[in-house]
Amino acid sequence: MATTELFVPPEPPATTAPRTRRGMPPLLRYMLVRIGLVIPMLWILLTLVFLLMRVIGDPISAALGGRMSPAKIAQAKAAAGLDKPLIVQYGQYLWNILHGDFGTTLTDHRAISNILVVNGAATLELSVYALVVAFLVGIPLGRIAARYRDRFPDVALRLFAILVYAAPVFFVGLLLKLAFAPLGWPVAGRASTATELTLQNVRPETHIMLIDAILWGDPKMILDVLQHAVLPAVALGLLTGGVFLRLVRVNLLQTLRMDYVMAARARGISERRVLGRHAFRNALVPVVTVMGMQIAMLMGGALLTETTFEWQGLGYTLGQYLLKRDFIAVQGIVTVFALIIGVVSVLIDFIVALVDPRVRF
Amino acid sequence: MLSTIRMTRGLQRVMLFTGFGIVAFFILLAILAPVVAPYGFNADRIGNVVFGTQIHPSGAHWFGTTVGGQDVLSRVVYGARTAVIVIVVAVIISIVIGVPIGLVSGYLGGPLDRVLVLIMDALYSFPSLLLAIVVSIIIGGGQSGFVTGILAAAISITVVFIPQYFRVVRNATVSVKVEPYVDAARVVGAGTPRILFKHILSNVAGTLPVIATLNASEAILTLAGLGFLGLGIEPSAAAEWGYDLNRALSDATNGIWWTGIFPGVAIVLMVLGVTLVGESLNDVLNPLLRTRAGGGSADEQEVAAEFEAAVGSDEVHEAVVVDDRDPKLVATLSLQDLTVRFDTDAGVVHAVNGVSFAADPGEVVAVVGESGSGKSVSTRSVLGLLPSTAHTTGSAKLRDRELLGLGSRALRPIRGDQISMIFQEPSTALNPVYTIGWQISEGIRAHRKISRKEARARAIELLDLVGIPEPQRRVDSYPHQLSGGQKQRVVIAMAIACEPDVIIADEPTTALDVTVQAAILELLLSLRDRLGTAIVLITHNMGVVADIADRVVVMYRGEVVEEAPVERLFADPQHPYTRRLLGAVPRLGAGNERPAADAKAEADKPITLIVDDLVVEFPGRIGQPPFRAVDRVGFEIRRGEVLGLVGESGSGKSTVGRTVVGLQKPTSGSVMVGGSEISELSEAQLRSHRGRFGFVFQDPAASLNPHLTVADCIAEPLYVQQVGSVAEQRNKVRSLLDRVQLPGAYANRYPHELSGGQRQRVSLARALALDPELLVADEPTSALDVSVQARVLELFAELQQELQFACLFISHDLAVVDSLADRVAVMQSGRLVEVGPRQQVLSDPQEEYTRQLIAAVPVPDPVEQHRRREARGKLLTDVS
């Protein structure tokens, strides 16, 4: 290589040239910064939860008022520390959360941390199924819609996405129940009573029923658990999948207009590869970011889906305690939700960094 | 609203109208609920006759009855009333609260903004339904009345939406506030409230209908969700669809469908209607999704008008073609009678009308022209890279193979292998998420059957060939880790990867600084010599043409008007358009023909601007030292004098300009205008001084508020500084329009209806409205076509002679500065390298950097440029 003949004048150094920063790899550094940013967000959420839950008055009178003598209520309040000044209660609340203690429900004396483990696992299971459905629905259909922009498949898919969004998840659930109940398909709960009793009480390993059933090793049980999961997963997955479809479509259309897509075509890259590698990978960056925000929607949807299908997750449990006016339980579960959101948003940031090198370096 | 509907077409219009229809239906239903509904929403009997529970739909009860024995139809109708009221109240409250907070927070910035953003983001990340639940527990306890119940539900939903409005409005404000037209308003002394409402809100407000409709649909779902969970309005107070669905849930397993289906369908329909409206508005208003706006046509007409004004439009000019090619040679690439038309929404556009030219092996053919000449379109059609709205006729041959009419499958083996392209903007032509090595290898592997490893080795070899230092390491870099010049080298490496027969280079150096441009052109030439590639160079820069072209094709309005060998074209242009174009090109050294200013008389003039020891630093990222953009710069400008400030991108020249007019606070040092120190004044104190300086921005399209008429734009400084009565202001605007040679009728037009040159005239009129002592012009002509630039510069010089303001003229173009400035200052990386009289700095530079800068500028004269290249070659080799 005879580069010496070539004219190489001094060029201003690239301002973003890779800096050989000593110590931390850039990805780790980025993740630490993101985690650092989640902490104030969590703190604000927890403070809001605390303040909002105190505005309604003290939870003990709200739950037990009229059913207990005032003296007993006072005693219960003192026991729960509710007679102390607000700021002390607030300090206690944060301190307890730091130690993983979210309190105990008033009505049935269950530790909230136990609710997190048992019912949280159910919500996690449902969310994962729903996400699988959402990805299977949203991403391929979004790509098809973008590819046939403004032609029949696109119009049909967009209408589908809007319909799926417009139908509340509990109405979709109701329709599914109407359709499947006559066929004898299970329309409520996480498993048949026998399976559930075995898995929950005899040997609950993970509280994720599918895994527990597999560990138990009975194929009938596995089938039973899967059958129960289908309808809730479809109801919740369709809702999220519709959103994914629209996101993928819009972002693909935008990246397809980019110069680098034309540049790739001009290099003779096949159309499949242009769509699949060049446009899609770039479209994923905003899609993942917005999906992260959609997790909040998924949680809200999970709450309704669980109530519809009597799926005993966090949302279903929350609904039960709301009806019992057990606000200590409500506060505990809402706090748990806040923590889950914090963890999820860090996870999403991590995925974004994997997809987009500009964030990493 | 009407104009938005007019912008829609076909499917979009159907969606919009369907949406409007459904929404109107529900609103009517809500208003007429007592008339339409056969019974009350909670009635379970007429007189003493009970309806009965869960009765199948019948004549008496079209939709059947519920488990509670109420008429389903009546509940659905009254439910519409509840939904409409709650949504209207919720959307209004959240706009009224969210928008102003977002506006103020975004504009003021600082700690308040940061805290608000944190809180709102935290709220936003929380599941909206959960938030609504918490709020409804607090305010909903025991609200059994209709009004209080509805208010409680609306407020629960509002709390969810305020963060959304806040985020959208704040982010829009943050991006609008750095728009040049907001700076332009600040320069003339507009106060914060005026900027917020007149300039920012009007531009942010465009997104509000979209968010409001999309939120409305979410509001319906949230309300239904609350009702479903039993947390909505008390059932005795109002009918609510979500609550009904909850009650119907147990019916579903028993095959009773009517109690759930009807309220459910009502929800779906209403959300569908509102969403359709919002979606279509979003599609229409989102510029990124528009198929093709007719933009640029005003500029094309302006170029044509400039030409026709100069030569008279009725003369017929034949194309002048001087063909000295060896007839025995088969051209590598030849176009014959190529036409391209686009079928756009606005009608058929004939972009290229019968273009013919050819490029031989090892030849550099330059295709030159201004906006609308069709130079890019005709070359792109060769590779089939035009959008599907384009239709081509004629012939485009690669040697003897016809390319036009081939599908992309047939073209694929040719693209990148036999014909490759180099694009104008290297930072967008490279895919940001893949390493440059990956992208180069991909192109090679698309045409050659070689392994990944071999492709990578070839990529390293290519990077070395195009002069990227440390290719073994850089091959794994991502595009954003390279400088602009390096990125263009990578694009070139990709273009030559398969040793193509033809390279089409579309404005390959336009986005680059002159020294980098010189290097890239040199690289292209050396590759041509080495590989014998034919190069089709598309450019508007006559200097670049003179530097490397062998033959030149001049295009005008989609036609070739002249073709000739380069020396001949420059020495003896035949076609009037070519003559006109060459005449308009500013050339370095032309300034020497102007008489030098009388130094003695100059020295007697009062000093208008003194900049002394100016330092401007921008805070670095956490843990990084601050970035010093301007480093101890000092100069002065006298009355009637033009100081040209030149430098490459990132040299800090624009920051100096912004600091001089008080748009940027200096870190230290002083700026004195007309004897008063302005660098330490607050925004409010500065306001009374604003009349003393005008500012002309680079991008005329961005520096005029799109929502103000031309007259309002020009009158803004007068209005803000309260100069004269309304009638006097109107007169002043008229005389200013006259001054910048725009017809008075333009006063009522909007900026987007003007061409680039006209817009820059409006900017100039606005800058001169207050008769300033000092005018700062930041690259005022760099966005304009050559012939238009020439006219604007002429006007600028005339006005300056007449009004005798002091002028700081910032430009990257030494030739432009040469034609205008009395003195020249050169900046490099924040420091002032050299300052002195124009002739001395440009003809006899003292500093090494100035010398390099001048040597790198290609002059539009092939003979002179070849001489300069020889001389420069030595100078720059010395440097490197």
TrEMBL record, chain A:
<keyword id="KW-0472">Membrane</keyword>
<dbReference type="Pfam" id="PF19300">
    <property type="entry name" value="BPD_transp_1_N"/>
</dbReference>
<feature type="transmembrane region" description="Helical">
    <location>
        <begin position="283"/>
        <end position="304"/>
    </location>
</feature>
<feature type="transmembrane region" description="Helical">
    <location>
        <begin position="157"/>
        <end position="180"/>
    </location>
</feature>
<dbReference type="Pfam" id="PF00528">
    <property type="entry name" value="BPD_transp_1"/>
</dbReference>
<keyword id="KW-0813">Transport</keyword>
<comment type="similarity">
    <text>Belongs to the binding-protein-dependent transport system permease family.</text>
</comment>
<keyword id="KW-1003">Cell membrane</keyword>
<feature type="domain" description="ABC transmembrane type-1">
    <location>
        <begin position="120"/>
        <end position="352"/>
    </location>
</feature>
<dbReference type="InterPro" id="IPR000515">
    <property type="entry name" value="MetI-like"/>
</dbReference>
<dbReference type="InterPro" id="IPR035906">
    <property type="entry name" value="MetI-like_sf"/>
</dbReference>
<feature type="transmembrane region" description="Helical">
    <location>
        <begin position="31"/>
        <end position="53"/>
    </location>
</feature>
<dbReference type="GO" id="GO:0005886">
    <property type="term" value="C:plasma membrane"/>
</dbReference>
<feature type="transmembrane region" description="Helical">
    <location>
        <begin position="225"/>
        <end position="248"/>
    </location>
</feature>
<feature type="region of interest" description="Disordered">
    <location>
        <begin position="1"/>
        <end position="20"/>
    </location>
</feature>
<keyword id="KW-1133">Transmembrane helix</keyword>
<dbReference type="GO" id="GO:0055085">
    <property type="term" value="P:transmembrane transport"/>
</dbReference>
<dbReference type="InterPro" id="IPR045621">
    <property type="entry name" value="BPD_transp_1_N"/>
</dbReference>
<keyword id="KW-0812">Transmembrane</keyword>
<feature type="transmembrane region" description="Helical">
    <location>
        <begin position="328"/>
        <end position="355"/>
    </location>
</feature>
<protein>
    <submittedName>
        <fullName>Oligopeptide ABC transporter, permease protein</fullName>
    </submittedName>
</protein>
<feature type="transmembrane region" description="Helical">
    <location>
        <begin position="126"/>
        <end position="145"/>
    </location>
</feature>
TrEMBL record, chain B:
<keyword id="KW-1003">Cell membrane</keyword>
<dbReference type="Pfam" id="PF00528">
    <property type="entry name" value="BPD_transp_1"/>
</dbReference>
<dbReference type="InterPro" id="IPR050388">
    <property type="entry name" value="ABC_Ni/Peptide_Import"/>
</dbReference>
<feature type="transmembrane region" description="Helical">
    <location>
        <begin position="14"/>
        <end position="37"/>
    </location>
</feature>
<keyword id="KW-0472">Membrane</keyword>
<keyword id="KW-0547">Nucleotide-binding</keyword>
<feature type="transmembrane region" description="Helical">
    <location>
        <begin position="115"/>
        <end position="139"/>
    </location>
</feature>
<comment type="similarity">
    <text>Belongs to the ABC transporter superfamily.</text>
</comment>
<dbReference type="InterPro" id="IPR013563">
    <property type="entry name" value="Oligopep_ABC_C"/>
</dbReference>
<dbReference type="InterPro" id="IPR003593">
    <property type="entry name" value="AAA+_ATPase"/>
</dbReference>
<dbReference type="GO" id="GO:0055085">
    <property type="term" value="P:transmembrane transport"/>
</dbReference>
<feature type="transmembrane region" description="Helical">
    <location>
        <begin position="145"/>
        <end position="166"/>
    </location>
</feature>
<keyword id="KW-0067">ATP-binding</keyword>
<dbReference type="InterPro" id="IPR017871">
    <property type="entry name" value="ABC_transporter-like_CS"/>
</dbReference>
<dbReference type="Pfam" id="PF00005">
    <property type="entry name" value="ABC_tran"/>
</dbReference>
<dbReference type="GO" id="GO:0015833">
    <property type="term" value="P:peptide transport"/>
</dbReference>
<dbReference type="InterPro" id="IPR003439">
    <property type="entry name" value="ABC_transporter-like_ATP-bd"/>
</dbReference>
<keyword id="KW-0812">Transmembrane</keyword>
<protein>
    <recommendedName>
        <fullName>Peptide/nickel transport system permease protein</fullName>
    </recommendedName>
</protein>
<keyword id="KW-0813">Transport</keyword>
<feature type="domain" description="ABC transporter">
    <location>
        <begin position="609"/>
        <end position="854"/>
    </location>
</feature>
<feature type="transmembrane region" description="Helical">
    <location>
        <begin position="83"/>
        <end position="108"/>
    </location>
</feature>
